[in-house]
């Protein structure tokens, strides 16, 4: 992983922490709890099997689950377009970014860079 990729992943995950991103480490899904700003940067993850405990893993070893922009539902597309139309108003750029993060959209192309895992119907850790 290049330093640029590492920085992009770190920035992306930091912004997503309030929205409980799911990540994969060693072929297993986890909840991302926090990021530890040390060297190396560590991701604190929650293992819920059979009881809950936190473990730390290097940032380079985890991948978040993200949705491609093309996976928006019609309802989401309408809400997205409404926010995009207001992006020049104060605070609306931040609201748009927050909305994209809350819905786990990959608006920074982490999937195609190999830094994230694409959420699909068959592979969706966010479904209830």
Characterize the structure shown.
The chain is of the alpha+beta class. The protein has one domain. The protein has three helices and six strands; from the N terminus they run H-E-E-E-E-E-H-H-E. A six-stranded mixed β-sheet has the order 4-3-2-1-5-6. The longest helix is centred in the N-terminal third of the chain and has 14 residues. The chain is globular, with a radius of gyration of 15 Å. The N and C termini lie far apart (32 Å). The mean pLDDT is 90.
SSE topology sketch:
Blueprint: H1 3-16, E1 22-25, E2 28-36, E3 42-47, E4 53-58, E5 63-66, H2 74-85, H3 92-102, E6 117-118
Parallel strand pairs: 5-6
Antiparallel strand pairs: 1-2, 1-5, 2-3, 3-4
The number of distinct helices, counting runs of at least 4 residues, comes to 3
Q: Regions with pLDDT < 50 over 5+ consecutive residues?
A: none
Structural class: alpha+beta
Number of strands: 6
Mean pLDDT: 90
Strand order of the largest sheet: 4-3-2-1-5-6
State the distance separating the first and last CA atoms: 32 Å
Task: Report the major sheet.
Answer: 6 strands, mixed
Briefly characterize the structure.
With 128 residues, this protein is of the alpha+beta class. It has helices spanning 3-16, 74-85, 92-102; strands at residues 22-25, 28-36, 42-47, 53-58, 63-66, 117-118. Strands 4-3-2-1-5-6 form a 6-stranded mixed beta sheet.
Record keyword descriptors for this entry.
single chain, 128 residues, alpha+beta, 24% strand, globular
